[in-house]
Design goal:
alpha/beta
Amino acid sequence: MDLVIAANSDLMGREAAQIAAVDLVAAIKNSGQARLLVATGASQFTVLEHLIQHDEIDWSVVDGFHLDEYEGISPDHPASFCKYLKERFVDRVGLRSFRFLRGDQDIEATVSEAAAAVSAAPIDVAMVGIGENAHLAFNDPPADFETNDPYLIVDLDEACRLQQVGEGWFDSLESVPKRAISMSVNQILKSKRIVCSVPDERKAKAVQGSFEGEICPKTPASILQRHPQTTLLVDEPAASLLSAESKEKARKVQS
């Protein structure tokens, strides 16, 4: 993975959006269209805010895809990723299409339909993050590194569910769903370009393990080390546990 360390989360988001924009414009130039995978959560706030400002992207030929969603959550629930994406991204750019994952509908049918849609052609750019437990999408540890199913129905571990409470999406652990729909690890790796954005000191251990540690299911995002076109963007607090060698080799963004 290429590593970018930004002075703060806003600069991280700006750089992530710039990388994604360049690849989206190139895909549109080469094939007349582009396919974009979009993540949610607090890590993507600044990323999406900067991405929607890139008016050089012809959004009318871009098809968007949803990374994950809770089971049983309606689109008007405050924690709904459908709601998050609609308000923060989809309604603010003129996409050709966006494939939402509806967690409040028949979950098996939702998974089947989403799998068919995302498998139709490669994803040009995947915007992802890393959880406090190093999950990639909702692939909590130990993640399934073997399946080639595009989407899975997964159990959420307690660390993942506590993160959702800590970020303010839910009032209590009991209110966080125990299952979710998630794009699989191997489907994410099929993307041509992966832009992984991770701010905040609370994710420093996950960043260290994912970037410098052994590739293993106990650290799901470590699998990104195998992808030839992945850029990991972090702010300085998230980079705090990285080795001096890693920090020295990283590209720095200070302004």
